[in-house]
Amino acid sequence: MEIPEDLKNQMLGLNIVLGALQSATGEICKSCIGLEGARTKVGKMVKKLGMDLDTASISCEKTKADLQARIDTLSKAAEELKVAEECECQKTAGNCKLGEVCFVTAGVDLMKLVP
Amino acid sequence: MAKARCGRILGEDIYIEEGDTTTLYFVNQLRVYQVVLAAFKALDQDICHDGCSLPSIVNKVIKRLGKLKNDLAASDVAAEKKESLLSKVDSFLADANRLPQDTSQTCRKSAGECIIGSGCFATGALNLIDIIEPKAPKI
Predict the structure, then answer these.
(1) A6 contacts in B (CB within 8 Å)?
(2) Where are the domains of chain B?
(3) Element (H or E) spanning A34, and its range?
(4) How far is the C-alpha of A40 from the C-alpha of A31, rounded, in Å?
(5) Rounded CA separation A108/B83 (Å)
(6) Average pLDDT over residues B40-52
(7) Burial class, B126, CB count within 10 angstroms (exposed 0-12 / middle 13-18 / buried 19+)
């Protein structure tokens, strides 16, 4: 199949990142600006993926439609990430004591593995 | 001593006493395993399911969760809290055991299917566990 490599890699990566973020919504991260920011960032990545697909030279209509369907699924997963209306950094709130790091941010950074 | 919320694991809010770094270590480990296992489940839906890296990483996670369980059992964490956290470790172990563990399959890079380059999502997700604090207490 003539799927551009970068599209394929980004789809794989976003699926994993969204899985991790989905899990974080069941955590105290649900009320955290870290997760709120991650949702925005990942939402933009998915949107860009859709734009890249639009401009990609894929002659087979079925392949393109299949890819679009996968992107739609990712987009829906990003939209459905449940984040509280009022968010604040849970470290600042004194609830998150992970140290300096944030596993939500680090989870999104997995996308940096995509060349 | 005052208790403070420090996480939510498997739907349960977790509170610990201020300054109790031993319990905090185990809570934070479980917090990150919760997220990492979700990433592995997502990987398992993709080509990684048929590769060798994900099973190899899953085997590592099973070992590490086993060690975490032993360390928690041997720790001075309060009995009631220990029991609650141990049941969560068991739940994560059960989740991990449902993931692929057969390392005899061909790496998806060698098979020409994984074209991510030198990186590996499974390894990257595993590394999330090592970035959090506090580090392991002496048990």
Answers:
(1) none
(2) 3-131
(3) helix A33-55
(4) 14
(5) 33
(6) 94
(7) buried
Chain B residues inside the 8 Å CB shell of A9: 115-116
**Which chain A residues contact residue B35 at CB under 8 A?**
20, 23-24, 27, 103-104, 107
What are the distances in angstroms from CA B127 to CA A12, A47, B60? Answer: 18, 28, 12
Q: What is the per-residue pLDDT for B78?
A: 96
What chain B residue is nearest to A114 in terms of C-alpha separation? B116
pTM: 0.92
Q: Which member of A94, A99, A113 has the closest CB to residue B119?
A: A113
State the pLDDT at residue A1. Answer: 53
Query: For an interface test with B, which of A28, A32, A35, A96 has the most B Cβ atoms less than 10 Å from its Cβ?
Result: A28
B54 close contact with A: CB closer than 8 A: no
User: Do B8 and A94 count as a contact with CB atoms less than 8 A apart?
Assistant: no
The complex's ipTM works out to 0.89
Q: What is the pLDDT of residues A70-110, one digit of tens each?
A: 999 999 999 999 999 999 999 999 999 999 999 999 999 99
Domains in chain A: boundaries: 7-110
Q: How confident is the model at residue B138 (pLDDT cuts 50, 70, 90)?
A: confident
B34:A27 CB<8 A: yes
